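#random but structural
TW: two for the price of one
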Amino acid sequence: MNWTIEYARSVTKAVRKMDPPTRQRIKDFLEHRVAALTDPREIGDPLKGELAGLWRYRVGDYRIICEIREETLIVLVVRIGHRRAVYR
């Protein structure tokens, strides 16, 4: 049971602005760690407040905000950014 990683349009723009090593670390994390799990919630943290229902992953100083779609086995990446600005 492998999960598919999909990216929202706004994420693709933000990722292009990152330096190549960071971009690669995030891509490797999502495609090799998160997608390979039977349940992506194992290594993520649920968000609260306005972002309730979304999940957070940590890669260095960057945060990856995702929506987990159980019925289609898709992890939709909604936002990626530096930890100081990603929740705004």
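TW: number two ↓
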Amino acid sequence: MTFILGLTGSIGMGKSATAAMFRARGIPVHDADATVHRLYAGPAVAAVEAAFPGVSVDGVIDRAKLGRQVFGNAEAMRTLETIVHPLVHAAEQEFLAAARAKGANLAVLDIPLLYETGGERRCRAVAVVSAPARIQRERVMARPGMDEERFAVILARQVPDVEKRRRAHFIIDSSKGLDFAQSQVDAIIAALSSTA
């Protein structure tokens, strides 16, 4: 039986780097964000363009144009989620079926908005990647195109870090360097591989 671990963390916490650490240890990881990118280049294009005219360019969703229509607009975001979430969930199920077929003891679902979308119900445990707010802010504000207003809107959509940590089975501290984070990942793999 494959143990399903949810991996999440607020913006700028280091979740993507942590997911790569699981992958480097041979653990299959399903990346919800990467799945959305694939969908925006194929299966979801027609439906998203129909809901938000003008956001596709040469058969691919232009994320910047889409962002201008949905960012900060709760109703538009809900419309987009009703299109995209079922497709992401279907891709996730295919990933898990493949992991089980290969006999994987552990599989990771990397889902940025895991708690916000109820994704924890599909996992046997959840690992939250976290760092102090000061470090999070430094990381996020260093990103191209980021400003205080955009950061505030993103944070408002996310369950607060303190609540994520409270609900987590495992907390991975990403503020003390890659080696420290890797050691925490390895400890989780060891613990869960023995319970699968």
